[in-house]
Amino acid sequence: MTIRSRPAPEALEFFAGGGLAGLGLSGFDVTFANDIDAMKAAAWRANHLGRLHEGDVWDLTAADVPGRPTLAWASSPCQDVSLAGARAGLGARRSGAFWGFWRLMQALDAEGRAPPIVVIENVVGLLTSGGGEDFATVCRAMAEAGYRVGALEMDAALWLPQSRPRLFIVAMRGVTGATAVGPVDPFHCARIRAAQSQLDEATRAAWAWWSLAAPARRNVHLADLLDADDAVGWFSAEQTRDLVALASPLHRQRLEAAAASGERRVAAAYRRVRVEAGRKVQRLELRFDGLAGCLRTPAGGSSRQYVIVAENGRVWARRLTAREAARLMGLSEDYRLPASESAGLKLMGDAVAVPVVRALSEGLLLPASLGERVAA
Known about the structure:
Blueprint: E1 10-14, H1 20-24, E2 29-35, H2 38-47, E3 51-54, E4 71-74, H3 97-110, E5 117-122, H4 133-144, E6 148-155, E7 165-172, E8 179-180, H5 190-197, H6 201-205, E9 209-210, H7 237-244, H8 249-259, E10 265-276, E11 279-287, E12 306-311, E13 314-319, H9 322-328, H10 341-349, H11 354-369
Parallel strand pairs: 1-2, 1-4, 2-3, 4-5
Antiparallel strand pairs: 5-7, 6-7, 8-9, 10-11, 10-12, 12-13
Helix pairs in contact: 9-10
């Protein structure tokens, strides 16, 4: 008797960037991807096999999409709904790209090829942008198409030493994913509960509290993922002094205490603009909790992240490298980054952390696609 293995369910990856979501979609076969950015498209091709359409999602038609996909993943642009941005909402040009994606899903539906699972990944600011109407509109569109819809907030810090909370709206039709009778920590935070309570009656009727098991306790820290000291370039003493001078008195005290501790202490730091006494002041903000701050791009409203080391009364400083950023996103060393450091950092700052997607895939999406149940 010949036992044939079941083919992997097909997935589509929109706003794919460097393809990190696809790498995390454990058990799925990404048969089609799309991104409008030439640099990101080049990175996708350097790390993936398969078909990539480089161009605007609005230009795609159902004829461009192969097969009968089981899952469509869309990490639609977040700048206009980010807490760090202008909060213009889904009506703004970049975030409005979601509607180009949804128009394509409707076209597939008209051909009987709509994916039974759709995932929208975005910043948590989507929950409150537009006074909450942006989130409600996305959920309503899916509910009106016959999907059960729910959301999870997942922070990469549960798997990686990077504080990176992200929102995942998961919709299913014709398949059944594991659900709970109500919200469950850590993935159904107060913000999601508040947003769900504001949905219209019909959308709430289609709501699902998707059930996903919390991961084991993370045991990796920022220092574990950094390059060796002699393999990177450090600032001069003068450059370090000028940078540290931007710290507020409280953050300066923390740095001085770390330097005097007799231990090697590693901090991640960002320069941010704060309002103090009615005027804007640039400040260096440090964290010594073993986590990097959320990786960002210049368009995200923040500068490049720094690495600060304090030891034996001394302080060293440098910039985080693109390879270190890739590790903080859960990528292996063989992932091919762009030749430019700034391009590599932009690629990572716009991406979704691989272990987060893998946990969502293995714990919810894949079992649903195969008609299986997992213990939560």
